[in-house]
Amino acid sequence: MSDDLTPVIAASTRWLLAAYPAPTGALSRALAEAQARQATTLAASLRYPTRLDVQLLHLLAPSGSHRLDWHTGCNPHPGNTAWRTWVDETVVSWAACLLADPVLATRAHQALSATEHAVVSLLRLTAPSGRDTEAAALLRHPDLLEHVACLHRPQLMELLSADSAEVP
């Protein structure tokens, strides 16, 4: 059984980029994708903190994008939609929270040390440059993200509060 979060991270990143596209230009798309991938990687690592959690995810499958599509009014094309089954609603919601609030993203990054996942650099997410912010204007806009972020924000806040309570 796999203990790899890559399919969920890739699908959730793809969903975010489809719902909140970057401005035109290859650099803008690349910068937006890097930020979305960092947010979904962090969210997925917090959501599935152990290898056993990840194995259970692969066994039971993520929630898919149906509810997210409904909340954002997205009407996916009937063709190539198999990837949408690997979208995890909670991961996308948590990623939206992290993209909208770099301070929260920094707190979440610190909580990553309590998981079995490696702590990696997430500077585009936690300390975005002006160019990063410009390239992901829709992807980081708190008002636009609110419909998705509010779906599972309480669970993220509870998780981060519990983690910070354990640290003296």
Model description:
The chain is mainly alpha-helical and 168 residues long. It has one domain (6-166). It has helices spanning 6-19, 26-47, 51-60, 66-72, 89-100, 102-111, 123-126, 130-135, 142-149, 153-166. α1 (6-19) packs across α5 and α2 (26-47) crosses α5 (89-100). The protein is globular. The mean pLDDT is 91.
- Strand residues, percent: under 5%
**Outline, from the CA principal axes?**
globular
Number of helices: 10
- End-to-end separation in angstroms reads 37 Å
Helix content: 55-70%
Instruction: Name the average pLDDT.
Output: 91
Instruction: Quickly count the domains.
Output: 1
- Rg, Cα atoms, Å: 15 Å
Helix/sheet category = mainly alpha
Largest sheet: none
Instruction: List low-confidence stretches.
Output: none
Number of strands: 0
Give the SSE string. Answer: HHHHHHHHHH
